[in-house]
What does this fold into?
Amino acid sequence: MDKSDFARRLADKLIEQLKDGTAPWQQPWEAGQILSPYNPTTGNRYRGVNVMALMVTGHGDPRWMTYRQAQAQGWQVRAGEKGTQIQHWIWEEARARLGRDGQPELDNAGKPIKDIVRLSRPKVLVAAVFNADQIDGIPELESSRRLEWDPVEKAERLLNASEAKIQHSQGGGAFYRPLSDTIHLPSRERFEKAAAYYATALHELGHWTGHRKRLNRDLDHPFGSEGYAREELRAEIASLILESELGLGYDPGQHAGYVDHWVKILTDTPQEILYAAAEAEKISEYVLTIEQKREVSQTQETTGVKEQIPHEERTYLDVPYDERGGKRKKRSAPSGTRSKRRVTSDQVLTPRRWQSGKYEISKQ
It folds into this structure.
């Protein structure tokens, strides 16, 4: 199926559901409920526009797989069932490196050297998948998943790791202000549940990722405009993915509605759902990995501070192996001299003070 046909079919279905109030991001679900489509044979969730393509089908079970994957598990797709098409975009491919003579360059083993090349247009692979409702022999879906984390605590850690500037008010609404790069939220006590507060906060954090210092999306549109609605579409889909991944639950009533704008956008430009879903995936990935990015950043900063101290000026105190972790033996040196000992393999270096993440001292 052509990419434009895929977009048109999906956009038409979404337009129909938007008018009925049944689009995926217009539906609430409870905390811990599994909603985002995933493949039970691989354990991976579907990504990007495929999330929308599978959710609009109306199946209540989030499990999807190919015919062969079902067969490999001993399950059977029922006769007459139709698959749902999904897409996989390939933006890079390996190509042989050519020499000046136009022939492939070879490595020491005589094999062609290949480079990864970014394609100007993606290669689109199409596959058909079936829902668990269409398959016999598959185990019943668990009513809720067992999380290894507390969703509210996880959401709080993500907000803290982002270091986003968040301002609360008693009477204001929820919004992100690009000019000041600040998130504005109602005070926490105005939310009935903690999960509702964090769902709203993460939605605004999705907008926050669009700042030029981060994912650099076009945020320069006035409230209520079509451009604003396009950004809101990305944030809504990202919220759906984020809150499903975290197990927070989802309340569409917490977010503003732009149904008329969305219907017009998808009618005029069906491909917009492809772009919106792709950017929503980037938003959710940025937020979900923000803790790891902060840890890497802190490690790099610490390494940078260490590298600023010239090696010859770094001084460590050596301690013999038999003194590790126990009571240190009293050591003495002749009066007026300093004890200088060569560090051997049975000794460790013990630093003397904490310096920006590592114990280290430098000569003053």
In short: Confidence is low (pLDDT under 50) at residues 314-321, 323-331, 337-364. The first strand starts at residue 64 and ends at 65.
